[in-house]
């Protein structure tokens, strides 16, 4: 029987004033009964609009049907036919613009909590299933090289190894997972889940070489010479942008990448961490995306009293997931919207404040969003000891500089043929942020999956 | 894991390690650096490559024991391993065939300048070098430098080797004596490189410096290593580590070096305290 509730079944979360002082996961997930209750809100639409909104095409009504019946393992099997990292996607996908954005229930009331259900199913499986994963890499199959162990690379590798290919992932950092490890904080995506997903990929037979920076330790051309029949580049958008305003090199100004890497990867939040961080009493985070929300909420957890999001447009234009904005507000993050930084003030070489100007929205620009315009004589200084720049990243230039015949956009993104993710260089494919610029985990996974299919077809192995 | 093939103590604070690292050894060039992690969850330490052996797939690093992580590294011996070792990072030094080059190495900065001078010598360049240190024991790689260079000069604070004074005093002496150089390469503490650049700017001698700022990943991702060069923001890890010394904003670089001074001292004191406790324990 259909559950007619207009709102999603409530999900347990840590209380805001408790969780903003710890790094444990914010959302605690559904119980079996809650999951069944939420699954029963699904109308099982025949035309499945939700699936068309999913970049990897998860058969959503089909898995939700199993959840409603209490057959959670069966649901897991259905999801993982199309999505190799469900525990991660359930937590970090912008569902409101994807599957849930297309849900018929959303026309009147809230859409079905597809993300919450996906997460529930993945967590259930992880907790209850000890089934051995068998190695699928076949010694007689061709070698494939994957550059980067983030969501694009992991997905591409996982798809290919399931077809028997011998896949090696080359990772520049000392830890695997890419942005899943260094970027997204523990309280939103526990690292044990990332580790478990990567462990599964290894069990399938994918080899991972950490500490190999492709472009420096070995080049794409050398990989091809070493008999890798195809190379997939999923090296991400690693190069942080700065605003080029005065004072940006003062001590206390971080890129969001540096700030989050210190905390997530180098564990700066632990007492006596070897790679430290200090935030002071007040922190300004510049930007309005998911990375900005992550940085702000992390700063709060590190003990900052006042944490400001400084964003030049209004709330409506905030590019972050709605849930992140909601959680940030609950945790006491202060939103200084329609504010733009013009400079950073220092004292003895350290940040003491950020100079801002107030903005208002003018005419729509090329992107269709209303352009922020300065309000004359509205300058003011925000007293802060730390400034975090979360205004986006560009692709790392290393691979394009060291690979012959690889065509790129003027801003550095690798140019691909969209249906196959093939680059201008024979047998070289690319996907994820290195192609699109900073985007989402799920789009990167979709690209990795598409490239894997194209590689399989190109190599013509049955 | 990366095995330590050889370890040598060069003086009371400076040590050398030759480490098995095939990926790095195969492709590295003079001027590039590596990042190592001694033990799980440790700090990522950037170190410029001091030498390499392509056949044996080893890379030589030279480090000064200054903080917690280098102390931890110093506890490792031949046959032990370090957890992580990635490279080569950064661009190779921009070495070109000119007539005459003067290298200036201060303290542990003597190590990274060595492969550059050796390479220049192989390219047929006439190479002199000034080696500077607190006292004679801080003059490392003396034998290697004498093999690789035409003239080796010394400057020590106490006059125990070469002139008593700074490397810049020796530089001024050489210039006053009418020695001509097409290029100066200076590597050492920021304050030394700054002082060298002030002199060479006066005489219009092209000068390269190698920067080793605070960084995390070394691949361009964190931007912590940013430095102003000619008014533009550069990342030392991917745009450097070698830059035109006359364009580097040394004041800013020296300020950025102070970022975590308090924390480093704190961690270091903790380490010494715990070491002391365990030593006291052993004595009992």
Structural class of chain A: alpha/beta
User: In angstroms, what is the radius of gyration of chain B?
Assistant: 19 Å
End-to-end Cα distance of chain B: 35 Å
Main sheet: strand order of chain B:
6-1-2-5-4-3-7
Largest sheet of chain A: 5 strands, parallel
Strand content of chain B: 25-35%
In short:
Chain A has helices at 16-19, 32-39, 49-52, 60-68, 72-82, 86-92, 114-128, 151-161, 179-182, 191-203, 220-225, 256-264, 290-301, 322-330, 398-402, 433-436, 441-459; strands at residues 12-13, 27-29, 143-147, 166-170, 207-209, 228-233, 239-240, 253-255, 282-286, 306-311, 334-337, 339-347, 350-364, 370-374, 380-382, 386-389, 393-394, 428-430. By secondary structure, chain A is α/β, with parallel strands linked by helices. By secondary structure, chain B is of the alpha/beta class.
What would you say this structure looks like, in words?
The complex is a heterodimer of chains A (462) and B (284). With 462 residues, chain A is an alpha/beta fold. Chain A has helices at residues 16-19, 32-39, 49-52, 60-68, 72-82, 86-92, 114-128, 151-161, 179-182, 191-203, 220-225, 256-264, 290-301, 322-330, 398-402, 433-436, 441-459; strands spanning 12-13, 27-29, 143-147, 166-170, 207-209, 228-233, 239-240, 253-255, 282-286, 306-311, 334-337, 339-347, 350-364, 370-374, 380-382, 386-389, 393-394, 428-430. Chain A has a five-stranded parallel beta sheet with strand order 5-4-3-6-18. Chain A has a five-stranded parallel beta sheet with strand order 8-16-9-10-11. The mean pLDDT of chain A is 94. In chain B, the strands form three sheets. A seven-stranded antiparallel beta sheet of chain B has the order 6-1-2-5-4-3-7. A seven-stranded mixed beta sheet of chain B has the order 11-10-9-8-12-13-16, sandwiched between helices. In chain B, α5 (167-176) runs parallel beside α6 (190-202). Chain B is globular, with a radius of gyration of 19 Å.
């Amino acid at each position: 029987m259909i559950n007619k509730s207009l709102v999603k079944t409530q999900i347990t979360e840590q209380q805001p004033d408790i969780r903003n002082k710890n790094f444990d996961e914010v959302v605690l997930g559904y119980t079996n009964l809650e999951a069944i209750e939420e699954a029963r809100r699904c109308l099982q639409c025949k035309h499945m609009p939700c699936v068309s909104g999913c970049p990897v095409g998860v058969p959503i009504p089909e898995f939700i049907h199993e959840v409603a019946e209490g057959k959670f393992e069966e649901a897991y099997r259905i999801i993982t036919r199309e999505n190799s990292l469900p525990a991660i996607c359930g937590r970090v996908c912008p569902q409101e613009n994807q599957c849930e954005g297309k849900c018929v229930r959303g026309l009147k009331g809230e859409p079905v909590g597809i993300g919450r259900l996906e997460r529930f199913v993945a967590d259930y499986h992880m907790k209850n299933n000890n089934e051995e994963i068998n190695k699928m890499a076949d010694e007689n199959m061709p070698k494939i090289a994957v550059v980067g162990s983030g969501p694009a690379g992991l997905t591409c590798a996982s798809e290919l190894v399931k077809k028997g290919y011998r896949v090696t992932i080359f990772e520049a950092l000392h830890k695997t997972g890419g942005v899943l490890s260094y970027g997204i904080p523990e309280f939103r995506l526990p690292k044990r889940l990332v580790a478990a997903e990567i462990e599964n990929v290894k069990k399938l037979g994918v080899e991972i070489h950490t500490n190999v920076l492709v472009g420096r330790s070995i080049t794409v051309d050398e990989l091809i010479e070493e008999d890798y029949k195809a190379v997939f580049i999923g090296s991400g958008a690693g190069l942080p942008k700065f605003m080029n305003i005065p004072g940006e090199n003062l001590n206390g100004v971080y890129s969001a990448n540096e700030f989050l890497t210190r905390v997530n990867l180098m564990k700066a939040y632990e007492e006596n961490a070897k790679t430290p961080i200090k935030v002071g009493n007040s922190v300004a985070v510049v930007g309005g995306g998911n990375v900005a929300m992550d940085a702000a909420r992390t700063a709060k957890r590190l003990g900052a009293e006042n944490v400001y999001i400084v964003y030049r447009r209004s709330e409506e234009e905030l590019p972050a997931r709605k849930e992140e904005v909601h959680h940030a507000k609950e945790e006491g993050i202060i939103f200084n919207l329609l504010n733009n930084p013009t400079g950073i003030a220092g004292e003895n070489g350290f940040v003491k404040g950020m100079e801002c100007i107030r903005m208002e929205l003018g005419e729509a620009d090329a992107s269709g969003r209303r352009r922020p315009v300065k309000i004359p004589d509205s300058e003011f200084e925000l007293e802060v000891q730390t400034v975090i720049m979360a205004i986006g990243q560009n692709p790392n230039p290393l691979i394009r500089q060291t690979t012959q015949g690889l065509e790129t956009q003027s801003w550095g993104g690798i140019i691909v043929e969209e249906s196959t993710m093939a680059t201008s260089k024979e047998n070289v494919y690319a996907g994820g942020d290195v192609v699109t610029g900073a985007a989402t985990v799920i789009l990167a996974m979709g690209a990795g999956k598409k490239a894997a299919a194209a590689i399989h077809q190109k190599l013509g192995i049955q | 894991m990366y095995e330590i093939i050889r370890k040598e103590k060069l003086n009371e604070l400076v040590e050398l390690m030759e480490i098995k690292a095939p990926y790095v050894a195969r492709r590295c060039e003079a001027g590039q650096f590596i990042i190592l992690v001694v033990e799980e969850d440790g700090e990522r330490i950037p170190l410029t490559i001091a030498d390499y052996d392509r056949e044996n797939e080893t890379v030589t690093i030279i480090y000064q024991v200054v903080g917690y992580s280098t102390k931890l590294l110093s506890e490792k011996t031949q046959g032990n391993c370090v957890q992580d070792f990635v490279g080569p990072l950064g661009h190779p030094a921009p070495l070109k065939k000119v007539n005459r080059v003067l290298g200036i190495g201060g303290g542990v900065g003597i190590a990274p300048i060595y492969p550059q001078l050796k390479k220049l010598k192989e390219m047929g360049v006439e190479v002199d070098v000034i080696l500077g240190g607190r006292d004679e024991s801080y003059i490392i790689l003396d034998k290697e430098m004498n093999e690789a260079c035409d003239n080796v000069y010394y400057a020590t604070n106490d006059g125990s080797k070469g002139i008593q004074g700074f490397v810049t005093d020796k530089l001024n002496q050489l210039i006053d004596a009418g020695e001509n150089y097409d290029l100066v390469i200076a590597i050492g503490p920021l304050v030394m490189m700054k002082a060298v650049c002030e002199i060479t700017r006066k005489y219009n001698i092209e000068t390269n410096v190698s920067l080793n700022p605070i960084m995390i990943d070394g691949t361009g991702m964190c931007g912590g290593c940013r430095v102003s060069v000619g008014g533009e923001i550069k990342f030392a890890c991917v745009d450097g580590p070698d830059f035109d010394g006359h364009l580097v904003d040394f004041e800013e670089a020296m300020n950025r070096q102070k970022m975590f001074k308090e924390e480093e001292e704190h961690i270091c004191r903790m380490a010494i305290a715990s070491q002391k406790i365990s030593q006291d324990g052993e004595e009992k």
